[in-house]
Amino acid sequence: MKPPLAILEPNSLAWLEALYRADAMLAEHVRAILADAGRADVCSICGAADHPADYQIAAFRPMTLRLCAYCSQLYCATYGTNVSAS
What we know:
This protein is α+β, with helices and mostly antiparallel strands. It is built from 3 helices and 3 strands, in the order H-H-E-E-H-E.
């Protein structure tokens, strides 16, 4: 039996490296968001710093994202998947 995959902290260096292997376009977008924000505790999608939370993406476990409230709702509506707080 394979050991469970580690769940990486969204927006961390290790998380970005793993994201580049899985989805280079999204990883490059997040890298630009983080560079503009100058910090990692922001929404992975839009860069909002207003209380983003870490979520696991149900369809892509153990994928995680750090999302603001708006982006978590938008993600669910766009991709038809649920996110859950990690």
